[in-house]
Design goal:
Elements: H1 2-12, H2 15-19, H3 38-54, H4 59-73, H5 86-95, H6 109-117, H7 120-129, H8 137-140
Helix pairs in contact: 3-4, 3-5, 3-6, 3-7, 5-6
Amino acid sequence: MKKILISFLCIYATCAIAQKNQEEPIEKWPPQAAYRNYLQNYKDIALTYCISVAYKTSPEASKDAIASSNGIDAWSYYAIRDEESPIIKLTKQYLQKNYNAKDGKSRLDLMKCMDMYHSEELDKLAKDYVQRPNDNWVKDNPDRVNENPPRK
């Protein structure tokens, strides 16, 4: 777990890429996370964290999930890197569940992460943790946003 957290922290430094030039308008940042509300971004970070842990033995999948989480984190105001984070605890809880695939070979880890993402537990965590759930990065940083928001 410590290796995952260390990797997570190291990759967090890549957030600097997303924030490297504070003068660039948001149009140059392709992800939509800046336009989604903080509550949704919190849940999205939980999902990407779960995937990064579930696929830690698949370096490319884990690396991409961590980088995605860091990208979302750049447009939020919270972090989950603390070992005491409720997202980390919830992720462990869901990934330890025993799901049985028909072929008997797959652990169905992605399904576990999706179930966590849609769970009442994560909804409660998000509502308890996110202070301004309906706000978003764009609303908080209007001077940094191009007048033409990306299409959905």
